[in-house]
Amino acid sequence: MSKPRLDPISEQAIDWMVKLRAGTPDAALQERFNTWLAMDRAHRQAWTKLQDRLGGSFNTVRALDRRLPGHASEARQVLLQPHASRRDALRVIAGLGLLGGGVWLGARSQLGDALLADLHTGRGERQNFKLADGSSLSLNANSAVDLRFDDKQRLVILRHGELVIEVQPDPRRPLRVRTAEGEVRALGTRFLVAQEQGASRVVVLQHSVEARLFDGTVQVVQEGQSVLMHARQIALVSSDQRQRADWLSGRLNVLDESLEHVVDALRPYSRGFVRVAPEVRGLRVQGMFPLDDPDRAFSALAETLPIRVDRYSPWLTLIGSK
Asked: Most buried of 59, 231, 259, 262, CB within 10 angstroms?
């Protein structure tokens, strides 16, 4: 699949935006910009579209805090800093969907997130990364993160997917992982964070973390504990969830999960579309399944559950009742 791209004139408009926001532009720079603007009607249209969407003083970005707390503040920091690059500006604009159009809508999808993220993995791919501070970050398949590391902060923004991080201590800059629901602050060394539909799952593998929602709700989560961070509450999960990190070794270890959740865990490793019929989604599953061979995992599920797995092509798998 080819990567969606902006047209060259839109890219030039973003270049000019970055240059003109870098402190106080001098007369020569302003003259070159005026020449570019007058050179072609399409230049003026692209510039007007960009300014209409962002607002002359970036009021649009500032107002985003009401819709996307936390994520919008990152946008403001990038777009208002004097030395932002076009790549930084492009990533923020696209991620917040400010320009409209197919490429920008695509940027809000998982594919677009991956294309614009600092680190990402594809289908069936797991990767380990060594971060600038010495921390170790592992990404599950189809995952994407952005990194904000400087002399004042260590921030990992989970766009989608799942990560395990082993944190190097730094009392001045506690490491945080941001999700759609809030932030997880490292109080210890090793934990898992997964972005799920409508919630963030946190599993503490060593020591403890502080889970904080954007509305200020806080809960300390100890080693062996797990929570689901919803928009307005943090719910403690009663069962031990540490086996969820077994994807690091290519295994899906299921103790008591619904078939729907098991298939969701296999999807990042599966080609094409996998549909689970509503009548079998709630079946309970136990077992160990190979992530790197999802077809074998589906066959194993069919042997132990009252389901049938029909493969119509490498791109379509239907799971229903027998």
From this structure: 262
